[in-house]
Amino acid sequence: MIRDITIGQYYPSDSPIHHLDPRVKLFATLLYIIGLFLSKSLIVFAVAGVVLIACIVISKVPFRYMIKGLKPVWILLVFICIVNVFFGKGEVLYFQWKFIHIYREGILQALMRVVRLVELILGSSLMTYTTTPTELTDGLEKAFHPLTKIHVPVHEITLMMSITLRFIPILIEELDRIMKAQTARGVDFEAGNVFQKVKRTGRILMPLFASAVGRAGDLALAMEARCYQAGRPRTKMYPLRYARADGVVYVLAIVYLAGMIVLKVMVG
Amino acid sequence: MIRAEQVRFQYKKRDVDGNVIATEEILKGVDLTIKKGEFIALLGRNGSGKTTFSKQLNAILRPSEGMVTVDEMGTRDAEKLYDIRQHVGMVFQNPDNQMVAANVEEEVAFGPENLGMESDTIVARVKQALEQVRMWKRRKTAPNHLSGGQKQRIAIAGILAMHPDYIVLDEPTAMLDPKGRKEVMEALQRLNQEQEMTVILITHDMEEAALASRVILLADGQVRFDGTPEDFFGEDALLAEMGMEAPLSYRVQQAMGSAANLQSGAGEKRDKCKIDALDIFEKDKDLLSLQHVSYIYSPGTAYEKVALDDVNLSLGKGEIVGLAGHTGSGKSTMIQLLNGLLKPTSGTVTFEGKDIHAKGYSGNYLRSKVGMVFQYPEHQMICDTVWEDVAFGPSKQGLTGEACETRVEEALRFVDLPEKYYQASPLQLSGGQKRRVAIAGVLAMHPEYIILDEPAAGLDAAGKREIFDRIRRMSREQGIGVLLVSHSMEDLAEYADRIIVLDDGKKILDDRPAQVFAKRETLADCGLDVPETVKLADKLRANGYQIPQNVIREKELLDYLGNCTNSTAGRKSVDTENRLDERKQGDNL
């Protein structure tokens, strides 16, 4: 069902990670990702995996929730495996049948790519699970604030992000209603060739666009009526303020990356 | 005090180069003074300029000529812009389209944040505003987990947090169910009476207008009436011209004024009502039916929800069945099951005695025989012109050429759509016209049964009556069975031959309207109200009038009271007077 798509997968809990400043979490996630791309060694990935699991345990987000985040990329992971295992070239041949050659290097390559991707996805979803969309946009706004000096409208961009997040469920619901309404009139969304399918998509998108444009106009009016003006200084109900734990995590994140670099130099 | 002096306003249409190609004058000299503490109902037909006028009050728009001043600040003074917007708050119709933030408290904080207030001040103001609309407990909730009424209360709180003196609301209840309406209206009355907040309410609903201290009617860009609601409701000719109707309580009082004997003629009327209802009830057949149908959303997941629980139902031809239930009771699931849009988790749905989910049963056949008109007719518009759109159904049925054209013409004639719109785009039509096209699109398929979801939503009294009369004609003349889904118990009382009440996925009642409305406690348990007519009849009974229980339609009640002779002239309608008195007292507070 189209309505079951969920965006903004915040998992409410009362863990130390939930309480961290979003800027710290963004920074730490960034360093974690850099760490993953430093090396191709499985030892490095193992270390990253241990750190990741420790973080997940601290965050109190259940593992099955974390695994759910992998669902959309399941096919991609399988695809990576197939391509690397069956078509990877190497020296140590394990298996041969007609045009299929399976090399040791291919298997290792597949394992490396899959583990890296899984760790990448789990790491970044840990951040979204422990940070509300509002915190996230606030964090981004603050983190990129220096860019306003070179006339990048940072606040406007982050506001756009948060409004988009707010309207996605509304528009998905509307899309569902439109599809039902047209089905009831005898439009069959399954049948037909590509051209007919494209034409039908147009019929759904037109009312959806018309409505989205109307909603945007309404929203702009409502914001204006509440004294919003782009570029005018605003304040925050809950301004971001660093606590001691945030400082500690900054240090830990840097130590982690430094450790990863050392590890890379050692194992290659 | 807000003062409008000779306010004129033109919309300018420009071509691509920015040259003005046409001007349309919306406001043609409006003179008004609004004092602090008033509760104003701003009325007018669509296109009368009431929304345009309301936008003048907080400088969203500025007059082309004349001037608007808010507490001595002119709206054209650019320096005062934010002061004015802070003093005059605005709430709009669609609760979804005016929310910016991801949760309730941040939503309310948006205004104060824009004004650059300190964090502590914002927190205090948000708390105060949410307490005023009684939503403090929900402060961490995301907007999409709130009901429509709650969302509108949050929108009001968002304005209150800016500490305004005036609050302008543009049809804030138009998209809400009766419970939501009540919540919003109660919040507004409380603010007006306890905080002396000036309320300017744009509305189509006369029951809401009756709660105001002053009614202002705009027509064709000018003030046409300005006075108390009582005086306004007395202007029969004006109301008729505007397609409006005085609230029932007022009309009842009028009927009582020409007081007559309540006893005489009663027996005759009662019998007539009975025959009418019985006659229809006998027609019931098993055209479309549900047998032990249950429906569960997302079974086996954390979001599992039983939407329908072992429901049996049979619907027949030539009968108008009303489907009632509060939001979330399973109404929309049920209609989607009847149309084959959803497949039941257990149980069977049959049409003409056949299981519609049996192997080889044609979904297209079912949908051409069981038509459905949705709440938002624009969603079911498929083609570029009205004519093509109505022809879509018949051509899917394999009709071509003349046969198809006849169907289309017949259907468009029946819904009375003027011929000049035949080649127009359906999306350009007005709300009422779109609904007519949607109905025509379904009728052109010659269905046996039609399901209508809130067919009168967003229409004024005249438009509503028109569409319902047409539906009744359709049912009576062509024998089409109708399932009418509505929030409005008044509409169901007026037009349904039989009413089904759903609550929490279960069928609670299925009976003739008079019988359903007699079960007041059951209805209250389902979160439903009885129609205004029944409430008034109850009050009259409490005052000693003997009104039969089966009087549930407006006309029946009014005729009944109108037939009275002077033998009971001493007993005037105490209750309706009380109602008006209460209102006056409210004003004095």
In short:
Chain A: This is Energy-coupling factor transporter transmembrane protein EcfT. The complex is a heterodimer of chains A (268) and B (589). Chain A is mostly helical.
Descriptive labels:
heterodimer, A: 268 residues, mainly alpha, 2 domains, two-stranded antiparallel sheet, flat, disordered N terminus, B: 589 residues, alpha/beta, Rossmann fold, 6-stranded mixed sheet, 23 helices, Energy-coupling factor transporter transmembrane protein EcfT (chain A)
What does this structure look like?
The complex is a heterodimer of chains A (268) and B (589). Chain A is mainly alpha-helical and 268 residues long. Chain A folds into two domains: 2-153 and 243-267, no CATH class; 167-230. Chain A contains ten helices and two strands, in the order αααααββααααα. Chain A has a two-stranded antiparallel sheet. Chain A is flat. The model of chain A is unreliable at 1-8 (pLDDT under 50). In chain B, the strands form four sheets. A six-stranded mixed beta sheet of chain B has the order 6-7-8-3-9-10, sandwiched between helices. In chain B, strands 16-17-18-13-19-20 form a six-stranded mixed beta sheet, sandwiched between helices. In chain B, β4 and β5 (73-74) form a beta hairpin. In chain B, α4 (119-132) crosses α5. Chain B is globular and about 70 Å long. At the A-B interface, α8 and α9 of A face α2, α3, α4, α5 and α13 of B.
